[in-house]
């Protein structure tokens, strides 16, 4: 249960950083000491280097949980992953769900694996978040209902969930969480070597934050070559 407690603390910290960002958004664009991430990224502020880098990992990984409010904001108000894909078309953000958070954490990791295998992550991501946020995620039937709305009936969902591909995807997500020693969400890792410090990207608006985040990712991808 230690990781669950650590993740909860990490989320509270993330909420704090997002609150700070919203406050910063009200600051004038002429504010002094404005960070230019294209030229002033530095270790210990926007990112940290892992003590034990991991090989054979996707270039860009995001760890998230459907129980994590800042993770929801990262697809709603601060669409970081979407911006990375749009601005860096050669890169794909691999999103892994963290199972240890929430009463339905394991089932939601399976649901995310099913969505990955079916190629339906974009269709179910926000509905799954909203079901949790609205306290409508209490059983596997609630997951079935969401998939049914996108044309996947219960029988198809269950047969896919029991498939080897989904079981392997679930194991891959859980193994990655352990390997990276994930303590908070949302968390991004670049080239298996760098961890982005979400609160270290200081800007004056949500749009500027997203753009700054993408710049940090781009710099770290090149730095890791």
UniProtKB/TrEMBL annotation:
N-terminal signal peptide: 1-25
This protein's record includes keyword Disulfide bond: yes
Keywords: Disulfide bond, Periplasm, Plasmid, Redox-active center, Signal
Species of origin: Pectobacterium carotovorum (Erwinia carotovora)
Molecular function as annotated in GO: oxidoreductase activity
Localization per Swiss-Prot or TrEMBL: Periplasm
GO (cellular component) term, any one: periplasmic space
InterPro entries: DSBA-like_thioredoxin_dom, DsbA/DsbL, Thiol_disulfide_DsbA, Thioredoxin-like_sf, Thioredoxin_domain
Family of the protein in this entry: Belongs to the thioredoxin family. DsbA subfamily.
One Pfam family hit: DSBA
Domain Thioredoxin intervals: 21-166
Disulfide bonds: 68-71
Name recorded for this polypeptide: Thiol:disulfide interchange protein
Keyword Signal carried by entry: yes
Cited CDD domains: DsbA_DsbA (cd03019)
């Amino acid at each position: 249960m230690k990781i669950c407690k650590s993740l909860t603390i990490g989320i509270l910290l993330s909420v704090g950083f997002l609150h700070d960002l919203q406050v910063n958004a009200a600051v004038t664009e002429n504010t002094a000491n404005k960070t230019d991430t294209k030229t002033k990224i530095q270790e210990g502020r926007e990112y940290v280097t892992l003590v034990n880098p991991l090989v054979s990992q996707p270039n860009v990984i995001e760890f998230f949980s459907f129980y994590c409010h800042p993770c929801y904001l990262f697809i709603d108000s601060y669409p970081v992953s979407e911006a990375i894909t749009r601005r860096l078309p050669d890169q794909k953000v691999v999103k892994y769900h963290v199972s240890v958070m929430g009463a339905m954490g394991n089932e939601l990791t399976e649901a995310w694996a099913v969505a990955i295998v079916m190629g339906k992550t974009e269709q179910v991501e926000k509905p799954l978040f909203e079901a949790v946020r609205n306290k409508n995620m209490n059983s596997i039937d609630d997951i079935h209902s969401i998939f049914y709305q996108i044309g996947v009936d219960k029988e198809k969902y269950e047969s896919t969930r029991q498939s080897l591909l989904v079981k392997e995807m679930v194991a891959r997500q859980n193994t990655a969480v352990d390997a990276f020693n994930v303590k908070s969400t949302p968390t991004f890792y670049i080239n298996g070597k760098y961890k982005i410090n979400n609160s270290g990207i200081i800007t004056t608006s949500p749009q500027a934050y997203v753009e700054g985040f993408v710049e940090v990712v781009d710099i770290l991808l090149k730095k890791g070559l």
